[in-house]
Amino acid sequence: MIDPERAAAQAEEGFARMWAELLPVGRHSRSGGYRRHAWTAADAECRAWFEEQARARGLAYEVDGNGNQWAWSADPAAGGAIVTGSHLDSVPDGGAFDGPLGVVSAFAALDLLRETGAAGSRPLGIVNFGDEEGARFGVACVGSRLMTGVLDADRARALTDDGGMSLAAAMEKAGRDPSALGRDEERLSKIAAFVELHVEQGRNLGDAPIGVASAIWPHGRWRFDFHGQANHAGTTRMEDRRDPMPAFAAAVLDARERALSAGALATFGKVAVEPNGTNAIPSRVTAWLDSRAADPAVLEALVAEITRASGAEVVRESYTPVVDFDGPLRDRLAGLLGGVPVLPTGAGHDAGILASAVPTAMLFVRNPTGVSHSPEEHAERPDCLAGVAALARVLEDLLAD
Ligand code: HGY
Ligand code: MN
Ligand code: MN
Ligand code: MN
Fold first, then answer.
1. For binding allantoate, which residues are annotated in this chain's numbering (predicted)?
2. Beta bridge partners of 224
């Protein structure tokens, strides 16, 4: 049986090697943040790293029709597979741990299971879900949403990046066939349980290195279009202007005040000003609202109010209802890990999407500052190794079913 104390030390060398290999990939020289956006060169480097880890371990490697990468210890065709993993893409200038910690820990946990003879014969799958952050095309968890059918394949193909390139074209450019997108019933039917390990994105674990997720808050993304009239900044009188910028600025401040009084979260980001000149009044400002709340009714009311007050044209681009990890798998993990904290998160995860299709649970690794989606995102190495040991212990138990 995996002994967490010994296992953490045993995992150290392999974890450190993989971490050192992955760390420089897609790192921004100036900010030190990561830009590993879907179907870019950095994403391809991350994918090459994943394939290399799989093949070096003699795992069966494949990429599914939705662009997710899989590494299997045994043929999943028989069903009953236990899957773990996360994502390797990042937000713009993101941190090193959000996503990669779950994938590196998955390979390190497999190594531990093999070294201790606890791998068993049930198929263990390691997954890298593509485009979890939605940084390039705007919609989060594209790979897992497509796999579970939550995101329509035609809609996904038509998503465009800031340069106007569609997701389909970006996939083709990366050598993937976009016609194969869609719910993967066959693959889902083979998975008995999915466990995602992830750096905690808040400071809620306190003095516990590991935690178990109880829920994911409902959250969504809405695209706001503020329309105006392009004109000359030097010849158009103030009273004659139809400048969309003031309306956008008012919406940002209004959203903040409303979120504060509702005890919820609202963030405007991914702003595009057209034309984005210094001496031209813009014709349009497009901005994405990310809003989240523990209570779905509060979230719905908040976004409705922000929308109404903004006067903008608003489209809901993605929405994840509350994910409740409640149930036997969560309790089993909490029991195996001896009374670790069980806590909710406002952060979305691929596990939140998979939970609608297969038994799913999440492990969190302490983030001492709570800072995430930033170059400052960090987790201490002993906590990361405790995470690997905890994941290995959980996988050992699930594989023994
Ligand atoms: O946005 C999120 O919560 C996640 O990091 N994709
Ligand atoms: Mn993230
Ligand atoms: Mn993540
Ligand atoms: Mn995630």
1. 221, 279, 292
2. 287, 314
Note the pLDDT of residue 296: 97
Identify whether residues 83 and 29 lie together within a single domain: yes
Q: Is 135 in the pocket of ligand 1 (CB under 6 A)?
A: no
Q: Which atom of ligand 1 is nearest to the CA of 134?
A: 6
Q: How far is the CA of 16 from the centre of ligand 4 (A)?
A: 22
pLDDT of res. 78: 87
- Domain identity same for 225 and 86: no
Atom of ligand 1 minimally distant from the CA of 91: 5
Cβ of 133 closer than 6 Å to ligand 1, yes or no, is yes
pLDDT of residue 29: 82
> Average model confidence (pLDDT) for the chain?
96
pLDDT at 98: 98
As beta bridge partners, residue 166 has 160
Q: What is the ipTM of this complex?
A: 0.89
Chain centroid offset of residue 181 CA: 19
Compute, in degrees rounded to 10, the torsion defined by CA atoms 355, 399, 122, 381.
80
Say whether 292 counts as a known binding-site residue.
yes
225 and 109 housed in the same domain: no
- Which of these three, 320, 351, 381, is where a domain ends? 320
Is 98 flagged in the annotation as binding? yes
Q: Is 279 annotated as a binding residue?
A: yes
Strands 81-86 and 191-199 turn out to be parallel
CA-closest residue to ligand 1 atom 4: 348
Q: Is 303 left (phi over 0), alpha (psi -120 to 50) or beta?
A: alpha
Spans in the chain with pLDDT lower than 70: none
Distance 94 CA to ligand 2 centre (A): 8
Q: At what angle do helices 381-399 and 4-22 cross, to 10 degrees?
A: 110
The pLDDT tens digits of the residues spanning 121-169 come to: 899 999 999 999 999 999 999 999 999 999 999 999 999 999 999 999 9
Which range of residues forms the domain containing residue 378? 4-217+322-400
**Domain termination residue (choose one: 269, 292, 320):** 320
- Report the separation in Å between the CA atom of 17 and the middle of ligand 4, taken as the mean of its atom positions: 23
From ligand 1's centre to the CA of 132, what distance in Å? 8
Domain identity same for 20 and 115: yes
Distance CA 254, CA 261 (A): 11
